[in-house]
């Protein structure tokens, strides 16, 4: 009849959307809200990449391409993965998709059967559990907190692995915590994963935004892990190309082949001109961006640590801070009770005009996510406002 599918009805609306909608409504009324809820870098796409796209349009490179992406781009991605990550792939082990989110969706639909379990350490990027559910799977959430640097332990993983486990998702550097797994930590996880009959999905989209530590792809540890790992990466974060919609998966031939068939019946190839831009972008990563993000992280971290009720772990990657606000919960601001981090974010928006995302959607209700992908001036104003707000909490 005239009703939506159970699948569509089951999708949880993004918990960040209400804050986002409210922020936009306030901005459109002319209110000076500082938006620290953004998930995209504030610098420009490398101009060389943009010019390559303009050239592609001028040259008429505006038609369907191979579903998996043009050979030129897949070969360039292969070279990147070899040089930067120590991973060796063939072109039929690469699938370029319409953003890393699309890559992940292809993976879930390709691997997950009804009732299959996918292990997801929390705090997690909001999209992972929803995609697993859309594919008919069951997300198995492993909680982590500041005590382990927001990292899952081998013991936790071992306990969660079972006959129904289809895959484990790792995201280093992490959105929302900024946690980065060290080589030794990955080795310890790999020891548990090696005998397990499941895939590893390694979302490495923030790999280049990393401060003083080394990014290690779990797939690079040894041949056994390599053969069961799907490496996901993209252009959005490292190259500020969120609007171009370009991401990719590298992994076992049979999985990539099935994902490519799926993609051939849904989106077909990613946009031809975006692919041409991607080829060039990979030659133009700007290391100044890392320095800028690092300086902002240091600034905001110092300010937050100087504020009452808040504690904040030092993130080593991405562009988020994930302060713990549990000591604020139960407090009052001008007669209004701050009972949850959701409520805290509402009040910060309404009363302090700073927009942040509550941790509930990331599986971490004691935290809030702050993006520092905004100018230093805006960060300074936001910190002043937060500090003034907290000064009135009783
Ligand atoms: N993975 C993580 C952890 C992210 O935070 C994001 C974007 O927010 C993505 C993947 C998807 O990025 P895109 O689809 O723009 O490539």
Q: If helices are DSSP runs of H or I spanning 4 or more residues, what is the number of helices? A: 14
Structural class: alpha/beta
Strand element count:
14
> What does the overall shape look like?
globular
The level of helicity is 25-40%
- Any idea of the CATH class of the largest domain? Alpha Beta
Q: Output the radius of gyration.
A: 21 Å
Q: Biggest sheet: strands, sense, closure?
A: 7 strands, mixed
List SSEs in N-to-C order.
HHEHHEHEHEHEHEHEEHHHEEEHEEEH
Range of strand content = 5-15%
Integer tally of domains? 2
CATH architecture of the largest domain: 3-Layer(aba) Sandwich
**What's the N-to-C terminus distance?**
54 Å
Protein name: Aspartate aminotransferase
Organism: Kyrpidia spormannii
Keywords: Aminotransferase, Transferase
EC number: 2.6.1.1
Overview of this protein structure:
The protein is an alpha/beta fold and 394 residues long. It contains 14 helices and 14 strands. The chain has 2 domains: 145 residues, Aspartate Aminotransferase, domain 1 (Alpha-Beta Complex), CATH 3.90.1150.10; 220 residues, 3-Layer(aba) Sandwich (Aspartate Aminotransferase, domain 2). The structure holds pyridoxal-5'-phosphate (PLP). Pyridoxal-5'-phosphate binds next to α5.
Detail the topology: elements first, then pairings.
Blueprint: H1 6-10, H2 17-28, E1 34-35, H3 47-58, H4 71-85, E2 94-97, H5 100-111, E3 117-122, H6 127-134, E4 138-143, H7 154-160, E5 165-171, H8 183-193, E6 199-203, H9 223-228, E7 229-234, E8 247-250, H10 253-264, H11 272-281, H12 287-305, E9 320-321, E10 332-333, E11 336-337, H13 341-352, E12 354-355, E13 357-358, E14 368-371, H14 376-391
Parallel strand pairs: 1-12, 3-4, 3-5, 5-6, 6-7
Antiparallel strand pairs: 2-8, 7-8, 9-14, 10-11, 13-14
This protein binds pyridoxal-5'-phosphate.
Pyridoxal-5'-phosphate binds next to helix 5.
């Amino acid at each position: 009849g005239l009703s939506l599918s159970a699948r569509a009805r089951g999708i949880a609306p993004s918990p960040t959307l209400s804050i986002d909608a409210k922020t936009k409504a306030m901005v459109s009324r002319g209110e000076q809200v500082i938006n620290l809820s953004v998930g995209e870098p504030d610098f420009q796409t490398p101009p060389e990449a943009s010019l390559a796209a303009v050239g592609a349009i001028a040259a008429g490179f505006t038609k369907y391409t191979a579903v998996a992406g043009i050979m030129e781009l897949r070969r360039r991605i292969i070279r990147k993965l070899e040089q930067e990550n120590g991973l060796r792939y063939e072109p039929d082990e690469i699938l370029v998709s319409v953003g890393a989110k699309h890559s992940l969706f292809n993976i879930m639909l390709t691997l997950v059967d009804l009732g299959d379990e996918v292990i997801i350490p929390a705090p997690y990027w909001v999209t992972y559990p929803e995609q697993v559910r859309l594919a008919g799977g069951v997300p198995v959430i492993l909680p982590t907190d500041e005590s382990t640097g927001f990292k899952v332990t081998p013991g936790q993983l071992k306990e969660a692995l079972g006959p129904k486990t289809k895959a484990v998702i790792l995201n280093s550097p992490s959105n929302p915590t900024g946690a980065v797994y060290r080589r030794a930590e990955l080795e310890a996880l790999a020891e548990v994963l090696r005998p397990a009959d499941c895939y590893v999905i390694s979302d490495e989209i923030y790999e280049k935004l990393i401060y003083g530590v080394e990014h290690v792809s779990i797939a690079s540890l040894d041949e056994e892990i390599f053969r069961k790992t799907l490496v996901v990466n993209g252009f959005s974060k490292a190259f500020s190309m969120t609007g171009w919609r370009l991401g990719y998966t590298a992994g076992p031939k049979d999985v990539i082949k099935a994902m490519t068939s799926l993609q051939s019946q849904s989106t077909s190839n990613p946009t031809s001109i975006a692919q041409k831009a991607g080829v060039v972008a990979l030659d133009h990563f700007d290391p100044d961006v890392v320095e800028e993000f690092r300086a902002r992280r240091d600034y905001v971290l110092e300010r937050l640590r100087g504020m009452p009720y808040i504690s904040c772990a030092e993130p080593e990657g991405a562009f988020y801070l994930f302060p713990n606000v549990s000591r604020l919960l139960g407090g009052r601001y001008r007669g209004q009770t701050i009972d949850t981090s959701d409520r805290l974010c509402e009040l910060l928006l309404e009363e302090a005009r700073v927009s942040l995302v509550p941790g509930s959607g990331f599986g971490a209700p004691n935290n809030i996510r702050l993006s520092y992908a905004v100018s230093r001036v805006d960060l300074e104003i936001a910190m002043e406002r937060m500090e003034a707000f907290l000064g009135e909490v009783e």
